[in-house]
Design goal:
This protein has 174 residues and is α/β, with parallel strands linked by helices. It is built from 6 helices and 7 strands; from the N terminus they run βαβααβββαβαβα. The protein has one domain. The strands form 2 sheets. Strands 2-3-1-6-7 form a 5-stranded parallel beta sheet, with helices on both faces. It has a two-stranded antiparallel ribbon with strand order 4-5.
Length: 174
């Protein structure tokens, strides 16, 4: 039986989540179809949602992903998803409510790639709090993206984060 996964590139507003998705696929706009990453070592195809719940709110985010699967058709019903995601806990935008709603409830595994640092160093995820909150869903596996901490130049930091994301994806899609 095939494992269906959601890969969520995670951080708060303006942390570079969508930018990493754009880099991963070599494009900025995504139709409701499957896309292969530009890295040939990642053996997978994905539905892609590059706008996160911090861009549109949790209800609209859920609707966007649900609509993307519906419009893609039956042949991709069991497709894996890559999406930008924000670990919010507010009454109008709760990340656990998102993960427990359809279409997210159908995923066997949810890989949450936590961007520890904002691209401009002005913020850092409180990893213990985020991971503790996400443990409410037993399907969640967290992976910290902190490889950029060793660099000071923005291009180097971006490359380090992108490389870490690609390595993680290659480990689950060899």
């Amino acid at each position: 039986m095939t494992t269906q996964r959601a890969i969520l590139i995670t951080g708060f507003s303006a942390w570079g989540k969508s930018r990493h998705i754009h880099m991963l696929f070599g494009k900025k706009r995504f139709s409701p179809k499957l896309y292969a990453p530009v890295d040939p070592l990642i053996n997978g195809k994905f539905l892609v949602e590059s706008r996160s719940n911090d861009d549109v709110g949790d209800i609209k985010f859920i609707d966007n992903v649900r609509d993307r699967f519906a419009r893609a058709g039956a042949k991709v019903k069991k497709a894996d998803l890559i999406a930008a995601f924000c670990p919010t806990r507010g009454p109008q935008n709760d990340c656990i409510r998102i993960l427990q709603s359809k279409p997210f409830s159908k995923f066997d595994e949810i890989h949450v790639l936590l961007l520890q640092y904002k691209w401009d160093w002005h913020a850092e995820l409180r990893l213990a709090e985020v991971e503790s909150y996400l443990k409410q869903d037993s399907r969640v596996r967290t992976f910290v993206i902190d490889q950029d901490k060793a660099f000071t130049a923005d291009p180097d930091r971006l490359t380090a984060r992108d490389d870490a994301i690609r390595r993680h994806l290659h480990s689950i899609y060899p």
